[in-house]
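Mods, move this if it's the wrong board.
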Amino acid sequence: MLRNVSVTKNFPEAEVTEHLRSVFLNKEVLAAVGLQEAELRFQKLLTCLSHPPSYTCVRASTHLAPLEDIRLRLVEELKKQKWISSAEQPSVHVSPHPRITDVLLLPVDGPRPVEQLSSEVVVGAQCGSAVLRGAHVFAPGIIASPKYMKAGDMVSVFSDLEGRCTRGATSFQGNKVFVGNGVAEMDRSAIFATETPARGVGVQMVDPLYQSPSFDGVLPSLVFLQNLPSVVVGHVLAPRPGEWILDMCAAPGGKTCHIAALMGDKGEVVALDRIQNKINRIRQNAQMLSLQSIRAYCFNSTQAVSDEPKQEAEGPPFPPESFDRVLLDAPCSGLGQRPNMASTWSLKEICSYPPLQRKLFQAAVRLLKKGGVLVYSTCTVTLAENEEQVAWALNTFPCLTLQPQEPHIGAEGMLGAGLSPEQLRLLQRFSPELSWDQIETTAPLPFRADRDTIGFFIAKFLKT
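Not the wrong board. Structure tokens:
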């Protein structure tokens, strides 16, 4: 059975849709595949971005236990979860990835035939996207609810696509999409009529449109929810024990912790981010995963290079050519995230990222030792933030050369930035739209996992 593809990603700003169309229908693409195929790919992109991948990816803490031991423990934990109804076969299929040695894959069941109820709860778009990936509805995400909603009431949950629902409303007729049914865990008054913001689960999802397990509190030291391309980044960086490695935009720390784990926690991983709360989150994750080699600092990475002689302080800024490897997982427009049925970005906001990315890139090159490796990645689909940045970097820094990536499970780079076929083959662009309507949901999970990802981009450079 091919999945339902009726929902399409919504951009309130028409100019954003037209901008993306111009990206995917650029002259190089049109010359290679023609107008009809290019337009079809763009429409598939808009459609697949509104749906979650057909699986959940977790990164296993193989620095703490063997993968098979973690897999068996996870199966036992998930059997206890109520997301498997008594009418279904009480077994959970957890599959290792055939090429990535610390990844486990779990199937997502959906879209399912769920009947909408008359009682409606409206949540924000971010909350709605989380529900589609297995989360319950936490109270801060609730925007509107029935006037007399009580704990124990069955409700349908809708996601507000354009952010136009008024907080505390009793109904909403705007642009919204159904994400499933659940049981209210709080009265309406406990959510809206309080001086302090309500916390905890507001609606327990019992009949979601996409059914997948919640990982809240499940083996927190052994499994870490992470999109597959984000795990690939760590392996492409290929850190080695004893190295000094910089993660320039590190929050919330998933990739930072993965790098430390791949090094066997031997060496040092310096994690930088501009926001203190996010630095605290990195430290919490490192502690939870028993990683001692991470040093996290609240610092602006564009200013991370020192022109002064080496100071006694161990933190940033750092002298040039300090690091063996640098990961620049750059701030980006995030247009590859799935599911994301709505985007409130303006075209001006989307176009604001490339200049910042280039400032970070310049710092990264200066901080990298000769013979060192720089990996650049984003979770977006635009040329300006991906292939065009690679072309700019190769022209700006003659010391950089593109390198092969291992594993390389995504597609090659996209046409449109003037890169050669050889250069495009060295890039890794995860493009779910290329096989969106060809992947049968009955196909083996490892087979479809590499194709059914978020939109993501990776480039690997060597500094000579």
